[in-house]
Amino acid sequence: MLGAATLWGTTGTAASFAPAAVSPLSTGAATMGVGGLLTFLLAGRSALRVLRGGRRLLLWALLGGAAVAVYPLAFYSAMDRAGVAAGTVVTIGCSPVFAALLERVLVGVRLTLRWFAATLAAGTGCALLALTASGGGARTGHDVPGGIALALLAGASYAAFACYGARIIRAGHSSRAAMGGLFGLGALVLLPVLAVTGGPLLSQPRGLLVAAYLAVVPMCVAYVLFGAGLARIPAGTATTLTLFEPVVAAVLGVAVVGERLGAWAWTGTALVLLGLLVLTVRFRVRRRAGSGTGRIPQEG
Q1: Three-state SS for 284?
Q2: Can you give the residue ranges of the EamA domain (predicted)?
């Protein structure tokens, strides 16, 4: 899951190299339309078995596929309007909240104190990044409120396909089959969007390189890793782990794009990392001699 988040963190930097006339809709459609088709082809017949697995599985796949189609269009539009840093951190920062609500309503999953602590730390860090990182960036958003609204929509969509993907996996299908089915359905919507809006992106060599990278690496490869993670941990935990994405995005923004982050933005980055440590690191406490109990595993 952390590997997937690292690859996703490169999307904003990669998209910044696209030609100036490229629409964020075409960038999003190329990323998850072409990448979704590749994911479906890699899954092969196993993805088709998801779609033929009965009325309940088909409903989950359709809902998840619809969320897959909405997510990139909203996400890349959010970055275009609010800036790369703000669009990324708000999208990823709100997704655990939406995922937790969906899991609570759909599955009845109980939220642990550990999850609340991790999400509070990481969410606070994302808020600091959103409020402070965009001001010194090379690309300034022109409609921050509209971009934030789109980022919230993207976060809800992300949480939705994570939850429905997890339900398909827990129904007995492989992670590759689940991701292939969802992204194949999403591609049915996104590829026509690309055909309508993709002229400036696909007509220049630089645009083609950007589209190819986004479709193969942060889309196809990353979502294979994401599906493998969903097979092992709850969707709420998965979406919290992906808060590592804005950390990667911030570092690349400084090192590659030339953005400048102040002390508060770096504090936000540290809080995101703290949240990830709280969520992922298990530790043991050794009792003092004479207690007679040896080691007792403790939840962080």
Answers
A1: strand
A2: 1-130, 147-280
Give the three-state DSSP class for 187: helix
Which residues span the domain enclosing 183?
Answer: 2-280
Biggest CA-to-CA distance, the chain:
74
Beta bridge mates, 297: 284
pLDDT at residue 285, rounded to an integer: 43
Amino acid at 259: E
Number of domain units in the chain? 1
Residue 262 lies in a domain: yes
Residue 31 lies in a domain: yes
With residue 295 as reference, give the H or E element that holds it: strand 295-298
Question: Does a structural domain hold residue 126?
Answer: yes
Q: What is the spatial distance between Cα 84 and Cα 240, in angstroms, rounded to a whole number?
A: 20
| 290 alpha-carbon distance from chain centroid | 48
* 165-215 pLDDT, tens digit each: 988 988 889 888 998 999 999 999 999 999 999 999 998 899 999 999 998
Q: Is residue 294 part of a domain?
A: no
- Closest C-alpha to 126, from 77, 87, 158: 87
Q: Nearest-CA neighbor of 88 among 74, 98, 99, 100?
A: 74
pTM (predicted TM-score)? 0.78
Give the alpha-carbon dihedral of 192, 194, 196, 201, to 10 degrees: -170
57 three-state secondary structure:
helix
Amino acid, res. 140: T
